[in-house]
């Protein structure tokens, strides 16, 4: 069965210990829209929050599982060590420096990586984030910035950029990316830390910022111990459910342990780990987030997939109230 190429990043899912403060940071400071307030479908006792462009277009979602007692993250290898967020141009980074100073956000100086201007920063839990300028990007399109955001549209975040994987055995991750998932290595750039090997760039689909994985080799670090402020998994875009079933069969045929087809209601998924232990997800572009809420009211109420509706009272009783009315 012929499978269509993966189209780029679909979403990145991370961990927070504080849903209320997380909501404040990503909506009031970063200006992203909360497009879905839902639950972790594998643990309905905790929130799953989706921040994105105006309607949660595929390739724009940064999501968080709330784990209230999550401990500190001890950064290390065999993990997702940076998530990039796309902004329109280089000038937007100057706006963000000023904004970060105003709000007391920890950030680094603007630098260039792989030909793009970037601005690294951390959220209140140390989540490792990078704003990346799309000024010279010609690859997969980003989403559409939310017009009601507190950040002006001309500077707003409107999609996911490159995701950095830091691993101890890059040859094994490379094999999965290229031989199985169809990525191509396109270039390298200077290491993030002196004395290390260059970072390798892999692209899929139409390429560009929204379809890149950056692979960093680090053999001098211990394995990361995840907690609040760490990344749980990265998901890649599959065209539709028909193609997803082809991916499920293919991953099964080549003997990679996997979840099989998973119904998430807002999209359909498949999960597996690459050899260094990083969790990958494949996720369909649709159906999207407007099946149970209107565009105007996205994220304002607790949304439960239909197969959880009969548990609503029990689920709501266990969750701390979180006011997300816009």
From TrEMBL:
Coiled coil: none
GO molecular function: dioxygenase activity
Start and end residues of each VOC domain: 8-134, 159-285
Entries under InterPro entries matching the protein: Extradiol_RC_dioxygenase (IPR052537), Glyas_Bleomycin-R_OHBP_Dase (IPR029068), Glyas_Fos-R_dOase_dom (IPR004360), VOC_core (IPR037523)
Name assigned to this protein: Ring-cleaving dioxygenase
Domain of life according to the entry: Bacteria
Keyword vocabulary terms for this entry: Dioxygenase, Oxidoreductase
